[in-house]
Amino acid sequence: MIETAFTPWLSLGGGVLIGVASTLLMFFVGRIMGATGVLAGVVQPASGEDFAWRAAVLAGMISGPAVVWLVSGNMPAVQVPVSTAALVIGGLIVGVGVTFGSGCTSGHGVCGMARLSPRSIVATMTFMVFTFVTVFLLRHVFGA
Amino acid sequence: MKLIVLYLIGLVFGVGISISGMANPAKVLNFFDIAGSWDPSLIFVMGGALVTTFIGYKLVFGRSEPVFEGDFSVPTSRTIDLKLVGGSAVFGIGWGIAGFCPGGALPALGTGRWEVFAFVGAVIVGIFLAKWFQNRQPAGATA
After folding, report:
1. Is B33 within the bounds of a domain?
2. Number of structural domains, chain A?
3. Which residues from chain A sit within 8 angstroms of residue B102, using beta carbons?
4. What pLDDT digit, counting tens, does each position of B63-78 carry?
5. How far is CA B104 from CA A45, A51, A141, B45, B108, in A?
6. Which InterPro entries match (chain A) (predicted)?
7. Angle at Cα B29 formed by Cα A20 and Cα A106, nearest 5°?
8. What is the ipTM of this complex?
9. Residue A1 resides in a domain
10. What pTM, to 2 d.p., does this model score?
11. Of B49, B65, B123, which is closest to A18 when you measure between CB atoms?
12. Is B106's CB within 8 Å of A61's CB?
């Protein structure tokens, strides 16, 4: 377990930027800003045009940390408090879950909830509850 | 031009994720650990993103169409089924195990940390597995 500092202002500012990006994507191309859709559409594109827009968004996302580094002099912190096995097993489970659930934190949690989509509200409440329970079980029951 | 705009939109998202803490699994897992080392920062990420998008969408949907396309392409399904709820539950379990979600991990790839590549690689394998399973289902069957 790694202690992290409470960062309300940076987190709020980051959240606003996520909202600005989601709004701009809808304004320019009429699409939901969902990381699941971006990733799935890049690894298994439906068409060349479909691939192009998602690849451009993905390239922008990946450039984010470099811009933060240029402005602040520090790379964004990536502290991994779990084992490599947990990362890989968790990743596999996430990939299966987001495909069946049609979205993740960005697609359902931000864009869908902002549209007051009943599907997204149910999906978001479901994954939040399951994440809380999983973390509680792993850290406080099984002591991982 | 369109691709440059899309790149810049991705960049705004990537910077937002990076400074918010969503790209840091330690911070994400601490948010979910109310009984332990709780860090409530992610409430501010979610709140800021939701309120901004809610207002932004209200303004955007006042237009007849997006700038570069003829139509808004937003999901229209309202069906709440086992696939949606079960898939979301499974996603939640994976998120709790790894501490990364796709929206946090994609920008985190830009830090060059190998752990992020291991996670995203596993997510891609998971997506292929799920799609393979879905394609095996006879037409009309519901998962």
Report:
1. yes
2. 1
3. 35-36, 39, 94, 98, 104-106
4. 999 999 999 999 888 8
5. 22, 21, 26, 12, 6
6. Sulf_transp_TsuA/YedE
7. 25
8. 0.96
9. no
10. 0.95
11. B49
12. yes
